[in-house]
Automatic annotation (TrEMBL):
Coiled coil: none
Keyword terms of this UniProt record: FAD, Flavoprotein, NAD, Oxidoreductase, Transit peptide
InterPro entries: FAD/NAD-bd_sf, FAD/NAD-binding_dom, NDH-2, NDH2-like_C
Keyword Cell membrane annotated: no
EC nos: 1.6.5.9
Entries under Pfam families matching the protein: NDH2_C (PF22366), Pyr_redox_2 (PF07992)
All copies of domain FAD/NAD(P)-binding, residue ranges: 12-330
Keyword Flavoprotein on entry: yes
Family (UniProt): Belongs to the NADH dehydrogenase family.
Protein's UniProt name: NADH:ubiquinone reductase (non-electrogenic)
One annotated GO molecular function: NADH dehydrogenase (quinone) (non-electrogenic) activity
Matches recorded under SUPFAM superfamilies: FAD/NAD(P)-binding domain
Length: 425
């Protein structure tokens, strides 16, 4: 079976994955004259930095997702196929997908990463990840459903199990969802569930000795202080070893009873068959040269979370798995493909660190831009502006801003709906 795309005389660039990097690459090639084929298992592009706000019922899923086909309307020679990519056939220069074979002249892998449970199948079965919009919806349903169960539970111990939320991972995602749930505890639970007021406990469990390890120690301390002020129980140096759906067990012997465990402890790159063994590095990331070409392959590139560039003295362990890295690599790969088609030398990728930010709730955030490290209201306002600008679509920007303003005034948004299909129930 073939994917029904006529090749014509144009150079074909196939992009696997329409995340932030894949979309940026596709848009960067719009004036190249190439035929561009985008393949993704979903028919929408999502904005990962705000997934935690969907999970905490602060935003609707449609506010941070945008239909891929609409993004490419008006772009000549652009095609989209919603499909699962199964393997690469380098000899034939083709990928095998769930909708058939797609040939390429250049292939760019931007499939991103998925949650890493580090081989613990029981944790993977019982904990809830927070990597995609679908994960966020499942998490929102789960927490709200357990609040409903706690409302009618007569056994005090069982009720507390429904009210305890354990977040595993002290990176940006863990800090942000902890702050968002702390605000839910303060503003939502007392109004929606008055019988449960002050019974909700939020634990942020981190195996390291500080939160936000990728940021400066000052920013880590600021984030921890703000979370503690909001009532979050921060546990550093606690490594989770098991979770059976009822009890979270730590390496140090400590336990926490909880029916709500959110796993944001790590990620691993999405994989695909047909890659040479020497190209697969730590956590499944694909080893690439400075031009993002996959090791041992011809005309195959990898960008974003899926890539690990070797040979950059400034980043000997590889670049951080951040949105800015994916966006900058996408632009460079687009330019390099055009340069190669015109017989010019490709240029190595040089990462420009534009800064790092993490929000901890209303009027609280930490930011690092160059030598400047600051927190509080200023960092929070900057975080709002940066993320609002990055959201696709004028309508989405408007509704996100409206939600943020409304939440800032009274936190009475009507998004706390438990929406599940009969099959999911």
């Amino acid at each position: 079976m073939r994917a029904n795309i006529r090749r014509g005389e144009r150079t074909r660039v196939v992009i696997v994955g329409c995340g932030l990097g894949g979309l940026k690459l596709a848009v960067s090639l719009r004036h190249s004259g190439f035929q561009v084929v985008v393949v993704d298992k979903n028919n929408y592009n999502q904005f990962p930095p705000l997934i935690y706000q969907v999970a905490s019922a602060g935003l609707e899923p449609s506010n941070i997702a945008f239909p891929i086909r609409r993004l490419f309307q008006g772009y000549p020679h652009y095609y989209f196929r919603m499909a699962e990519v199964k393997s690469i056939d380098e000899n034939e220069k083709a990928i095998q997908t769930s909708v058939g074979t797609i040939h390429y002249d250049y292939l760019v892998l931007g499939m991103g990463a998925t949650t890493n449970f580090f081989g613990n199948e029981q944790i993977a079965h019982n904990a809830i990840p927070m990597k995609t919009v679908s994960d966020a919806m499942a998490l929102r349903n789960h927490i709200l459903h357990n609040l409903e169960l706690a409302e009618t539970e007569t056994d005090a111990d069982k009720r507390q199990k429904f009210m305890n939320v354990v977040i595993v991972g002290g990176g940006p995602s863990g800090v942000e969802i902890a702050g968002a749930l702390a605000e839910m505890k303060k503003y939502v639970v007392p109004r929606d569930y008055p019988d449960l007021a002050d019974r909700m406990h939020i634990y942020l469990v981190n195996s390291g000795d500080r939160l936000l390890k990728a940021m400066d120690k000052k920013s880590s301390a600021t984030a921890e202080k703000e979370l503690v002020r909001k009532g979050v129980h921060v546990r550093k140096g606690w490594r989770v070893t098991d979770y059976d759906g009822r009890v979270v067990r730590m390496k140090n012997g400590e336990t926490i009873e909880s029916a709500n465990v959110i796993w944001v402890s790590g990620v691993k790159a999405n994989t695909i068959a047909g890659l040479p063994d020497e190209a697969v590095g730590h956590a499944g990331r694909l080893l690439c040269d400075r031009m993002n070409r996959v090791k041992g392959m011809t005309d195959v590139f990898a960008i974003g979370d899926q890539s690990l560039i070797e040979g950059d003295a400034a980043w000997p362990q590889g670049h951080p798995q951040l949105a800015q890295v994916a966006l900058q690599q996408a632009e460079n790969v687009a330019r390099n493909i055009v340069r190669k088609e015109h017989g010019q030398d490709m240029r190595p990728f040089v990462y420009k660190n534009l800064g790092t930010m993490a929000t901890i709730g209303r009027k609280a955030a930490v930011a690092e831009i160059g030598r400047w490290k600051f927190g509080g209201l200023t960092a929070w306002l900057l975080w709002l502006v940066v993320h609002l600008r990055s959201i696709l679509g004028v309508k989405n920007k408007f509704f996100v801003l409206l939600n943020w303003l409304w939440n800032y005034v009274n936190y009475k948004q009507s998004l706390r709906l438990i929406l599940r299909s009969n099959r999911e129930k």
